[in-house]
Design goal:
By secondary structure, the chain is an alpha/beta fold. 46% of the residues lie in helices and 18% in strands. The longest helix has 33 residues.
Length: 617
């Protein structure tokens, strides 16, 4: 019911055409370079010293799937302009390989660049750290400044070092939003909102100037659980008395004052870090474990995790076998149509599921869901493909990440079995629709809209005309019916009473622990647990099946362009001169992408959404 869809799709089509032309031009330019530099670039992998420290430097945000089109992301990486994100699986795999590699004597976990990550993701990496330490090898955590996420991981290391001018900034959990109701009224906008769910708070910024009591209650219950989990994790790992970290955070000013204003000293005195050391001192400590770098005696012998992973995966790629469990990641907001990674497109995610259906080696599927929801229509398109896999005898298991709420729960509950972590945000079973109109704003400046039609529906859903009472009634009926479909589907798939589902629905958000107690999930567990269960449901013998990741792939043309760019870069060419357009073009392109992102966020064909405000800072 969104009248802006046609404009959005026209603009998106034009953009796709321009983007395709850009890639072709890149190819033509690089074919010449290819002829000149082919063979000049050896491509030899970095050598791993016989005694080394593995340097793991997670940056940005921890994610299950990198954002963006695969080609553009790879190009940005070559240009050094990639968005700062770190795949959780990359960190986990690095620790797992290193645990059994005699060349790796220690892991240097440099956390200065880690900004954030859901608690469930932090716990997954923390488990990998603990497993690595069980091999008898140490983990040394360092940072200039520890973010909340960084400190969670550091706490699981053998030693935690911080720069003398550093800071441990653990903030706690919470969430704040901006509310627009008064501004909407002053601008004479009619923000028509239709919803079902007493706690469905996503629309509240358009209808209120503050958080509703229902949302406050639900969110407080959630963040209190997450804060308790975080504190327990950190204090247990560090061997601190219960309450130590919370007391430090609550009274940070007092602690800093007692340390003469030095917050770094305060953190050390509270037992949050072991020593305050400069970088030269840390290098000397690591030399004691890994030895000196053979080319530079001021450095310690090391291998970067990215280089290490490329080699180890090439040498030990035994994941894919004749019979496999496919892993498909559904990460981001759910939108109608096809969209790049980091967003769940109804059509693009359905395509990945169909690839699993057509692949004879795939006997079961794990859908890794990390999403606050979005378009109801797109969610149902994905659910239909899950049902097609089940009808073909291929069981599907959902593995929830940090968030699997609203539409994220819609697609998860369609599977044969649902796993979550205790720190998963889930539930938020509710539905809403929004359609703003600005006819009163137009009237205020002397503009009117008028016309004729054969039925009362002609001219409706125009943003320059007031919604009629019948249109509002129809919209609310559709929202009510969609909510009924949602709770009926949950009741049927979870074998629960529909009224009981309604009680725990109403847009309420739950932790994984709550979801298990309420019957919304089957088990608490990891992605690996979900893979094992999917294999069991498919009758696959332990150790006789592989794991096959199904994701969007580069086209042959795109791969050739990137390979040629790598050749050029390895030969010393400044590739930014080849691929960068004029500054005006870049400015326009970036602006257009941001505009499209905003427009397509609400692109459900009927204007009906199941979306959760699940952000926990």
């Amino acid at each position: 019911m969104n009248s802006s869809n046609i404009i959005v799709r026209i603009v998106a089509s034009i953009w796709r055409g321009l983007d395709g032309a850009r890639k072709v031009l890149h190819l033509l330019l690089l074919l010449v370079l290819f002829l000149v530099f082919f063979g000049a670039f050896s491509g030899a992998p970095a050598l791993i010293p016989q005694q080394a420290a593995l340097l793991i430097q997670p940056v940005g945000t921890l994610v299950d799937q990198l954002d963006g089109d695969a080609y553009d992301r790879a190009l940005a990486e070559l240009l050094g302009e990639a968005v700062a994100q770190t795949l959780v699986q990359d960190v986990v795999d690095a620790f797992e390989f290193a645990a059994n590699d005699d060349r790796i004597k220690v892991v240097h976990l440099d956390l200065s660049g880690l900004g954030g990550g859901g608690l469930s993701k932090l716990r997954t990496i923390a488990d990998a750290i603990e497993d690595f330490r069980a091999s008898g090898k140490p983990v040394i955590a360092t940072a200039d400044i520890y973010s909340q996420a960084a400190y969670h991981l550091a706490a699981h290391a053998d030693k935690v070092y911080m720069h003398p001018e550093g800071l441990v900034f653990v903030r706690g959990y919470g969430g704040y939003r901006t509310y627009y109701k008064d501004a909407i009224d002053k601008l004479r906008l009619d923000w028509n909102v239709f919803r079902v769910g007493t706690h469905k708070s996503f629309v509240e910024p358009y209808t209120r100037m503050d958080m509703s009591p229902e949302d406050r209650q639900s969110r407080t219950h959630l963040i209190d659980q997450f804060w308790t989990m975080y504190l327990d994790d950190v204090e247990t790992a560090r061997g601190l008395t219960a309450g130590t970290v919370d007391e430090f955070v609550q009274n940070m000013v007092a602690h800093a004052s007692a340390a003469g204003g030095d917050i770094a000293v305060a953190a050390k005195e509270a037992g949050l870090v072991d020593e305050l050391l400069g970088r030269a001192e840390i290098r000397e400590i690591l030399k004691a474990y890994a030895g000196e770098d053979k080319h530079d005696s001021t450095l310690y012998s090391s291998v970067y995790a990215g280089d290490y992973l490329r080699q180890m995966r090439m040498l030990h790629d035994e994941e894919v076998k004749d019979e496999n469990v496919a892993v498909i990641v559904a990460s981001g907001e759910i939108l109608d149509g096809s969209h790049p990674s980091g967003t769940i497109g109804g059509d693009s995610t359905a395509l990945l599921l169909r690839r699993a259906l057509a692949d004879k080696s795939v006997k079961a599927v794990v859908l890794r869901v990390d999403s606050p929801g979005g378009s109801v229509f797109a969610s149902e398109v994905i659910a239909e493909e899950i049902e097609a896999l089940q009808e073909a005898g291929k069981p599907v298991v959902a593995s929830m990440g940090s968030v699997a709420a609203s539409g994220g729960y819609w697609i998860s509950v369609a599977t044969d079995k649902v796993f979550a972590s205790p720190a998963t945000v889930t539930g938020s079973i509710g539905v809403f629709g929004m359609f703003p109109t600005y006819q009163r704003t137009m009237q205020a400046v002397g503009i009117a809209t008028d016309g004729v039609g054969t039925t009362p529906w002609v001219g409706q859903l125009r943003p320059d005309r007031e919604m009629s009472d019948d249109m509002k009634a129809l919209f609310q009926l559709i929202v009510n019916d969609t909510y009924d479909d949602f709770i009926s589907g949950v009741a049927d798939r979870r074998q629960m009473d529909k009224d009981a589902v309604d009680v725990i629905a109403q847009g309420q958000v739950w932790s994984g622990n709550d979801a298990l107690a309420n019957g919304l999930i089957d088990e608490l567990g990891t992605l690996d647990d979900a893979v094992r269960t999917a294999a069991e449901l498919a009758g696959l013998s332990d150790g006789q099946y592989g794991r096959k990741r199904i994701e969007a792939q580069l086209s042959p043309t795109e791969q050739m362009i990137l390979d040629l760019l790598a050749v050029a870069k390895g030969s010393g060419i400044e590739i930014s001169r080849i691929v960068d357009g004029p500054s005006a073009y870049r400015t326009f392109a970036n602006g257009l992408q941001r505009l499209l992102a905003g427009l397509t966020k609400f692109n459900d064909p009927k204007g009906i959404y199941s979306h959760c405000f699940c952000a926990l800072d």
